[in-house]
Amino acid sequence: MPALWPTLAIPWITLYASTAGLKIHRDHIHHHIGNVFRDGDYHYRRVKQLTISVGNVPRETDMGLLCRKQTGKRFSHGGLLQLLRPALIMVVASAAMMMVRPSFAQTGCVDATVTNQTQLEAAIIDYNTNCGDGETLTVELNGGTITYTGGGPSNLNNSTTAILYIQNGTIDGNRDTGDRRILRLNPGNVIFENMLLTNSRSINGGGVRVDANSSAVLINTIMTDIEGSSGAALLNNNGSLTLINSTIANNEVINANATGGIWIRGDGAVPSFTMINSVVTGTTRDDGAVIGVGFADVYCTDTDGYNLTYSSGLSNLIGVIRADNGDNCGIAGTDFMTGDAQLGTLADNGGIVQTIAPLAGSPLVNGGNDAAALDSTGAALTTDARGSGFARVNGAAVDIGAYELQGCNSATVTSRSELNVAISDFNSNCANGDTLTATVDGTISMTSSLTTLNNATDAVLLVEGGTIDANDSASVMRLNNGKAVFQNMTLKNANGLNGGTFFVDSNGDLTLINSTISNSIATTGGAIAIQNGVLTLTNTTISDTTRLTNGGAVVSLGGTMNLNNTIIANTVDNSANPVEDCVNSGGVVNFSAGLSNLIEDDVACGTAGTDFIEADPLLGTLADNGGKVETMILLPGSPAVNIGDNTAASGLTTDARGVGFPRILNGTVDLGATENEDLTSPALLTLDPADDSVNVVLTPTLRITLNETIQAGIGNITIKRVSDDGVAATFDVMTDVSFTTDTAEFTVPTALDDATEYYVSIPAGAITDSNGNAFAGFTDNATWSFTTRSFAADLSISKTDSADPVLAGSTLIYTLTVNNAGPDTAENVVVTDNLPTGVTLVSTSGCAEDPNGVTTCSLGDIASGGSAQYTIEVTVDAGTEGVITNNASVTADTGDLTPSNNSASEETTATPPPTGSLTLVKEADPEDGTDFAFTSDIPDGSTFSLDDEPSQSDVINQSITFADLPVGTYAITETLPSDWALDSTSCTGASGSTSLSGETLTVPVGAGEVITCTFNNTKQDSNIILKDVFE
Q1: How far are the Cα atoms of 476, 543, 595, 612 from residue 517, in angstroms, in the given order?
Q2: Parallel, antiparallel, or unpaired for β 546-550 and 521-524?
Q3: Residue 380 domain-assigned?
Q4: What is the largest CA-CA distance in the chain?
Q5: Do both 705 and 657 map to the same domain?
Q6: To bridge 244 with a disulfide, which of 5, 219, 323, 365 should be the other Cys (CB 3.0-4.6 Å)?
Q7: What is the DSSP letter of 851?
Q8: Considering only CA atoms, which of 488, 88, 400, 389 is closest in space to residue 220?
Q9: How far is Cα 208 from Cα 280, in angstroms, rounded to an integer?
Q10: Is 328 within a domain?
């Protein structure tokens, strides 16, 4: 380049017209945009734009004039070359104009892409220092976020018409680390487009301050969560402020003298405020004052008047507008809407910045003026604040504010941002009868919650077919209002305060179908908490969740829970309270029919055994078990297999994994998100006696336990001698083997040889699991062998009873004697006595007692020729009659030569107790029909009455008889009527002595006695005693 170049702020330029550059002709024009004017080998200028009107221009002009930044330098043919700025040259030749831009780097007012505050500060300084009239310095954020630290950015300080154009990103004021605003214009001109300005704080304009001789234009821009006095978000201090499709919402003024979200202040000048398709709303004050009393969303100070303009029609919304003189800033209420904008919260709704979406029914939707939705060049806006992919006009008209609803459109989503877009569209655009389906493709990984559900209509948000991983950083979703269905989903690693994965508020309605929640943690409700909302879980698995303080995996704080074919289990409790999988506090819980839900540890969600199964579901870990999502399959032996309610699973064709995994197998749906497709054979767990055991009894009971529920297959189990493979015993699995859950048991019926090694052979298929998968079995002596013991004892047991027969209600004593006739000591001798029905155990002679009617007594060791004895005392229950049989058996660790005498029985005849008969008779003098009342301790005779007038037609008789009266002594007391006396009593048929004391007769009744006792009464004369009054 020329040596002079570095010394000049505006370089010297030589322009040549050539075939490679530009020719101007009288009758025609050839322009080659992009061609380079050359001076030797140096490229100086590139044609950017050419506008020529043919006039008095020479036929061919040689623009070979050397010139510099000075007005008035002319071409040789009368043209005028005028340099406006280093990047722009205007050539005027008569009516011709040419614009060119340099192809080399500029030294000032250079566009910049910035990623941090330092780079933004450099761009501001460049603007302040180097940009002149008509220039624009563009600052590109490319969807990034600049977070302020330190003292914040420099003020704009450029008195030219130059513009600082900041676009496509977020500026976070980071007010928690210090007070600073986003930007002050003092003076200067700025355009914010597709921007989010947030989280700043300052006096006199918490976000942006526009001073005199300055202008700020906000296009597709959001200002929110900003704190400030005298204009919480914006202070227009004698400057010019324009809002185009922007949202100024939810900002806070921070002192009692503050004015509003936007303060338009005229002080010695008339401020300009233009509002196009924009909304200003939600301003609050830190002292809790009511908006409209001292502050507003837009507040004007009427010093020198206003210059307020609006897009035509009611295409703007200001929540509350107020001037210090009490008017509406000098404008008519018909120029804009007021009231509730019905906005959601700031959220990731997709695109390059977070946005605030309008809710369904918001007046912002389709409320704007399309003709006014223009960018800084006057061209129509093509996108909303989120940028590419989000059309600016969608529907009947452009929406007011920075966000444009994209419609109630179903979508396939692969990220949190895309799912948030779907949720925001649902919140804002879906109405009664609509269903917005968000199909999750793969796994959505996120570190903050999804947009809150907020749709008051009957629309449904359906999220299906994938995984949401919250990375232990956030809950998945809060449902404030509206209906959401998550189907065939896995939701894992969530972390929240109330409800680790979901919180369902009072107007929320959440349904989970064929879904899994795993590894979720919360203070209250490890997986889900509902607060007076509705929760429906259908074929859902909730496991491995943690609650830190209150509730369980699922907690209802009022509301309705519907549990259908669902598993809630394996909750970890980090509080001091018991483990709880499900807690209901004041709500309603409904269950699908039968025992078709499983809650492992319940507190108050219903009744175990009636509403649900309370058991370990035997779940596998969350893993890839095929299909589209990870699942927790039911392990062998799970009680959740084949016990569901098919009606509750109506319409479900697959389990959570999707195509290829039927929802119902074996005729009945399983509980939880997966259907048990068991193709795994049962495996061996334990053997009893264990392999290579010794000293096994000659008639052992053998048990084999596998790792799942088993049943009989086809075949025989055999016991063979190791020495010659000879068969010692054969067991048909269908008739000779008993199966209890995971264990098969069979007993050798005939004693094996002593001191002999045997092995068990089980062919493949003899045992299967509940789905028919065969146990592989074993047929050689390498798996299950044992050696019988050498016998050294011969125990026998005998039993006697006393008394026999025995009266019901009396005591019966059994005496048991054990003898050892063998050559050696019998070790650890134990007697087991099964008490018969009809007796109650009282005591044994020092042996253990079992309330279930079985007594065991350990007699220790009995030497050869020795014996041991003990007694059992019982009471024969009243009403017991006939023969009762008591069985006892004896065992020892030592082998027995004669097992047949190791048991004994004793029969005792129980008879009812004897009875007698007692008749009571009334004799009265005179026989005038007087009723005499009696009380007694006779069964069924506690009170009765007699009289001595048989001819009377009343129900009272002269006598009463008590037949089948238990043997014993009875007392009968007569209550005497007035003027009657009991003269005497007489009894016949009694073997014992009767006695009369006052009006009470005592009568002993013996067995078989028939006794009659008569009560003799006389009526007393009435006596009148006259006393001599003259005594």
Answers
A1: 11, 6, 22, 19
A2: parallel
A3: no
A4: 180
A5: no
A6: 219
A7: T
A8: 400
A9: 15
A10: yes
The 10s digit of each residue's pLDDT in 256-304 is 666 788 998 877 677 888 999 999 999 998 887 777 666 888 888 865 5
Query: Which residues, at least 6 apart from 357, have a Cβ–Cβ distance to it below 8 Å?
Result: 343, 344, 347, 349, 403, 405, 424, 427, 428, 451
What's the number of domains the chain is made of? Answer: 6
966 and 876 share a domain? Answer: no
For residues 586-623, b (16+ Cβ closer than 10 Å) or e, as one string?
ebebebbeebbbbbbbbbbbbeeeebbbbebbbbeebe
Residue 512: which of 549, 556, 442, 564 has the closest Cα?
564
Distance CA 219, CA 245 (A): 6
Q: What is the tens place of the pLDDT at every residue in 825-879?
A: 898 999 999 899 999 998 888 676 666 677 889 999 999 999 999 999 999 998 8
Helix, strand or coil, per DSSP, at residue 6: helix
830 and 965 fall within a common domain: no
- What one-character-per-residue DSSP string does 651-692 give? T--B-TT-TTSBSEETTEEPSSSS-----PPP-EEEEESPTT
pLDDT digits (tens, 9 = 90+) for 396-406: 899 999 999 88
The per-residue pLDDT for 268 is 64
Q: What value does the mean pLDDT take over residues 235-254? A: 94
Q: Report the b/e string of 29-47 with b at 16+ CB within 10 A.
A: beeeeebebbbeeeebbeb
Q: pLDDT at position 309, please?
A: 75
What percent of the chain is predicted at pLDDT more than 90?
Answer: 59
Range of the domain at 158: 112-345
**DSSP secondary structure string for all residues of 735-803:** TT-EEETTEEEEE-SSPPPTT-EEEEEB-TTSEEETT-PBP--B-STTSSEEEEPPP-B-EEEEEEEES
pLDDT in tens, 10-32: 332 333 333 333 333 323 323 33
Who contacts 833 (Cβ-Cβ below 8 Å, separation ≥6)?
814, 816, 854, 855, 856, 857, 872, 886, 887, 888
Q: What is the CATH number of the domain that holds 739?
A: 2.60.40.1220
Same domain, 735 and 827: no
Domain boundary among 102, 124, 155: 102
949 and 928 Cβ atoms separated by less than 8 Å:
yes
- Last-in-domain residue among 753, 787, 821: 787
3-state secondary structure of 1014: strand
Distance CA 434, CA 449 (A): 24
Beta carbons of 137 and 120 less than 8 angstroms apart: no
Residue 933 sits in a domain of what CATH number? 2.60.40.1140
The answer to whether the pTM exceeds 0.85 is no
The DSSP output letter for 914 is P
Q: Which residues contact 288 (CB under 8 A, 6 or more apart)?
A: none
439-455 mean pLDDT: 94
d(CA 501, CA 212): 52
How far, in Å, CA of 625 to CA of 630, rounded? 6
CB of 959 closer than 8 Å to CB of 998: no
Count of Cβ atoms closer than 10 Å to residue 694 Cβ: 12
Q: Are residues 96 and 122 in the same domain?
A: no
Report yes or no on 425 lying in a domain.
Answer: no
Per-residue pLDDT, averaged over 794-814, amounts to 91
3-state SS string over 46-73?
A: EEEEEEECCCCCCCCCCCCCEECCCCCC
Across the beta sheet with 968-975, the strand order is: 943-946, 932-936, 968-975, 1000-1005, 995-997
- Report strand pairing: 767-769 vs 727-732: unpaired
> What is the helix (H) or strand (E) element at residue 608, kind and residue range?
none
328 and 237 share one domain: yes
Say if residue 778 is in the same domain as residue 919: no
CATH number, domain at 886?
2.60.40.1530
Provide Rg for the chain, Cα atoms.
Answer: 51
Residue 332, C-beta contacts closer than 8 angstroms, at least 6 positions apart: none
Q: Which two tokens stand for residue 554?
A: 């699922």
Looking at the structure, tell me whether residues 212 and 96 fall in a common domain. no
